[in-house]
Amino acid sequence: MDAIYQRGRANAADVRAALPDAPGYSAVRALLAILVNKGFLKIERDGPRYAYIPTRPRGEAGRSAIRRIVDTFFEGSLDNAVTALLDSRSGKLTDAETGRLKALIDQARKSGR
Known about the structure:
Layout: H1 2-7, H2 12-18, H3 25-37, E1 41-46, E2 49-54, H4 58-73, H5 78-88, H6 95-111
Antiparallel strand pairs: 1-2
Helix pairs in contact: 2-3
């Protein structure tokens, strides 16, 4: 998905070229077909090839993925997910990061989220 989001649209060869230790061409095509079937990508004919295009903007897709991760791995607990993220960091939060997180929490409280 990252390779496609970076380009806006890509064919299977573009995606394969962007992957480190890329699998074979047919494996990439199979993965793209799965993403199409799941609704993450759509296909357009581009001459003799097919171009794959994201169905949702990157930010929207990212928020949806985060929700699924929180539900799947953290039993729906945002607190547990954030704790895991903070525990996995190798360094401390900067003052700017701490301030930004506090502001986001305050904003979420005010809006009732």
